Each structure stands twice: as structure tokens, then as C-alpha cells.
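Dear colleagues,

For the upcoming journal club I promised to circulate an example of a predicted protein-ligand complex. I picked one with heme C because it came up in last month's discussion. The inputs are reproduced below in full, followed by the predicted structure.
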Amino acid sequence: MKNYLLAIICGVGLVAASFFLLTRPVAAQNQQSTAVFDSAGRLKLPTGYRRWVFVGAPLTPNALNNGKAGFPEYHHVYIQETNVDAYLKTGAFPEGTVIVKELTRVLNPTFPDGSRTEPSGRGYFNGEYNGIDLTVKDSKRFAGTNGWGFFTFGHHPLPYAESATESSVAECAGCHIANVAKTDMTWVQFYPILRDGDKTK
Ligand code: HEC
């Protein structure tokens, strides 16, 4: 009887221990940054970002830029919810924050200014995905550029590059440093939820 009881206790202990071991890494993973660097310092393209908080979509169409805008697409900007929450509380993004700016072209233009007419009116509608720029906060790794690294995974339709090396100050960080150093290197003034807060919560 004693041995029988002991076996049950050990069995329950083993099940509990394996449950703990199996679930623990998952919990830890959730708190990790989505920024994954390989041994050469290249950043991997994050996954799942289209389900993050969609904070805004600036648009700089060709029609308003002499037909040759640098980025004629919509700029869809995504940030993970925990990082949005932290920004709203503290006015700064946590270490490891990744901000994805994914471009989508304007949908099949029928007018020279890039617009088309739909039942809602003449204007611009989201077309195909066309590239990714990304920033990641890591104050140690990117100490020289105000704690943020800048990466581009291509300016073209899918598929994007799987990994990217850090872009130069001239290509990226310089303009953000000159204009938005005071708002954690991010153009929060264009993203209503970051600028005005989330009053729906
Ligand atoms: C000439 C200035 C300038 C340069 C150079 C520049 N950016 Fe930006 N960036 C902006 C502006 C302005 C916005 C917000 C408005 C918009 O998207 O049009 C922005 C937005 C972003 C965002 C969305 C988050 C945020 O900060 O608002 C990311 C990510 C980003 N840029 C990455 C990059 C990367 C990567 C490069 C280099 C490949 C780059 N930027 C080069 C001006 C610049």
C-alpha cells in the first residue's frame, strides 16, 4: 500500500514538473522582444506583425509630389500592444520594441494622379504590399543612433528579404534624430493612439 501511494505521489509530481517545464518557455517567450539577430548581427524579418496594433497610415502619393514621391505608398505602422501600453504610460518605448512600417501601394489607379473612383468616392485605396522599413529599440546595440536601429527589408512586392543589416545614419537614423529625438525617435504626432491616448479603454 505504501509503495502504491508513493508511486502515485511521484507520478503526480512528475506530471506537475513536466507541465511546468513545458509551459514555462512559452511564457518567457511572450515577454521577449520580437527582434531576433543572427550571429552576424543581421535582423530577422519579424512574423505576425500584421496582427499588432495598427497605429496609423501616413500617405505621400505621387500626385502631391510631382509624380515622384520617394514612398508613394501608404505607410502602415504596427507596434505590439504591450509596447503601445508602455508608451502611453511612460512616454517612451521599452527596450526591444519593434516598429514595423509596411508599405502598400495605392490600388490600380485609373486617373493620372493615382486615384480611382469607388462607390464611396474618388480617392486612394489599399493595393498590394510593397516593402518594409523597421526600427528596433536596443540602447546598447544602437547607442550611436539614440538607442534605435534602422532596417529595411526591401521596397518591392512580396517576398521581402528574410534578414537585413543595419542601414546607415545617412539613409535612415539621421532624419529621425534631426526631427523626432524628443519623442523616442518615432513620429508619434502622426499616430492618433500615441498622440491622443486610447480613450476607448
Ligand atoms: C528624410 C527623413 C526620413 C528618412 C531618411 C527616413 N525616415 Fe523613417 N520616417 C520619416 C517620417 C516623416 C515618418 C513618419 C511619416 C511617414 O511615414 O511618412 C517616418 C516613419 C518611419 C517609421 C514608422 C515609425 C515612426 O518612427 O514613425 C519607421 C519604422 C521608419 N520611418 C524607418 C525608417 C528606415 C528604416 C529608414 C531608412 C531606410 C528611414 N525611416 C528613413 C522620415 C524619414
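Two points we might discuss: Residues 58, 60, 75, 77, 99, 101, 133-135, 150-152, 167, 171-172, 175-176, 186-187, 190 surround heme C (CB under 6 Å). Residues 1-32 form one domain.

See you all on Thursday,
B. R.
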